[in-house]
Design goal:
The complex is a heterodimer of chains A (about 120) and B (about 110). Chain A has about 120 residues and is mainly β. Chain A is built from no helices and eleven strands. Chain A is about 0% helix and about 50% strand. In chain A, the strands form two sheets. In chain A, strands 2, 4, 5, 6, 9, 10 and 11 form a seven-stranded mixed sheet that branches. Chain A is globular and about 45 Å long. The N and C termini of chain A lie far apart (about 35 Å). Chain B is mainly β and about 110 residues long. In chain B, strands 1, 3, 4, 8, 9 and 10 form a six-stranded mixed sheet that branches. A four-stranded antiparallel sheet of chain B has the order 2-7-6-5, with no helix packed on it. Chain B has no helices and ten strands. The radius of gyration of chain B is 13 Å and the shape is globular. At the A-B interface, strand 4, strand 5, strand 9 and strand 10 of A face strand 3, strand 4, strand 8 and strand 9 of B.
């Protein structure tokens, strides 16, 4: 049973280019979360998606960042016109159910995608 | 470690000793508190959680203590091993997980 798969593991982009990060959740998981890990800031929530729906995007920057989780295929985090400040590790996590009520909140994380903007 | 390059609070502990990692949380409405471990170059891994109506929970070699009065969470690792070297994050759940800054544990052989 494969875990959460993220690719690419490492991505180098020049300023102004686009970055696309992909995440395939664990089998049977329909809830996906993206987190960003910046130096000095730890893990910061970005967005929570369920199949074909964005549930909570309160942590997403207002511009240049978008996320989707289509009916078929992986979840995509897209960063347009990257800047040096976007350099970070981006982690995807999945869960089989929504984080609410009696659900303990255990998320299964991928190994991350490390974006470097030159 | 490579995982984040953070200037984190660091606990150096001798192999075989016990480790205690502390965390302050902010949201009184959080219903679960969770500890994650992140090894260098890897994603966070769930260690143990505790429900908000409990004050102690034990796992294998780990114990989590919750003090809601002062909004404090701690993780105790018994007989620390080299494989315990990692960054440890506390997280609180209230519809989504919010992570604290992390503590680095370095185990000295």
């Amino acid at each position: 049973n494969a875990g959460v798969m993220q690719n690419p593991r490492h991505l180098v982009r020049r300023r102004g280019q686009e970055a696309r990060l992909r995440c395939s959740p664990m089998k049977g998981h329909s809830h996906v979360y993206w987190y960003r890990q910046l130096p000095e800031e730890g893990l910061k929530f970005m967005v929570y998606l369920q199949k074909e729906n964005i549930i909570d995007e309160s942590g997403m920057p207002k511009e240049r960042f978008s996320a989707e989780f289509p009916k078929e295929g992986p979840s995509i985090l897209r960063i347009q016109q990257v800047v040096r400040g976007d350099s970070a590790a981006y982690f995807c996590a999945s869960s089989p159910r929504r984080l609410s009520g009696e659900n303990t909140g255990e998320l299964f994380f991928g190994e991350g995608s490390r974006l470097t903007v030159l | 470690g490579e995982s984040v390059g953070l200037h984190l609070p660091t606990l150096s502990v001798q192999e075989g000793d016990n480790s205690i990692i502390n965390c302050a949380y902010s949201n009184s409405a959080s219903d679960y508190f969770i500890w994650y471990k992140q090894e260098s170059g890897k994603g966070p891994q769930f260690i143990i959680d505790i429900r908000s109506n409990m004050d102690k929970r034990q796992g294998q070699r780990v114990t989590v203590l919750l003090n809601k009065t002062v909004k404090h969470l701690s993780l105790q690792i018994a007989a620390t091993q080299p494989g315990d070297s990692a960054v440890y994050f506390c997280a609180e759940k209230n519809n989504r997980l919010a992570f604290g800054k992390g503590n680095q544990v370095v185990v000295i052989p």
